[in-house]
Amino acid sequence: ALKGLTTEKILAENPTWKEDYYRDVKQRED
After folding, report:
1. CB 20 within 8 A of CB 26
2. pLDDT digits (tens, 9 = 90+) for 1-30
3. Which pLDDT value is given to residue 1?
4. Which long-range contacts (CB under 8 A, 24 or more apart) does 23-30 make?
5. What is the pLDDT of residue 25?
6. Which pLDDT belongs to residue 24?
7. Contact at 8 Å (CB) between 10 and 2?
8. Residues 14, 30: Cα–Cα separation, whole Å
């Protein structure tokens, strides 16, 4: 998984990708 500034850059360039990113994060926390 990508983290830090790289993730922020991807989120900035691909707004819709954020939905999948947070979904993945929540699955890891659970």
Report:
1. no
2. 556 678 778 778 888 888 887 888 888 877
3. 55
4. none
5. 85
6. 86
7. yes
8. 25
Q: Where exactly are the structural domains of the chain?
A: 1-30
Which residue type sits at 15? Answer: P
Residue with tokens 């994060």: 25
| Cα–Cα distance, 18 to 21 (Å, whole number) | 5
Tokens of 17: 């990708």
pLDDT reported for residue 2: 57
Q: Give first-to-last CA distance, the chain, whole Å.
A: 17
Cβ–Cβ under 8 Å, residues 6 and 13: no
What is the model's pLDDT at position 3? Answer: 66
Rg (CA), the chain: 9
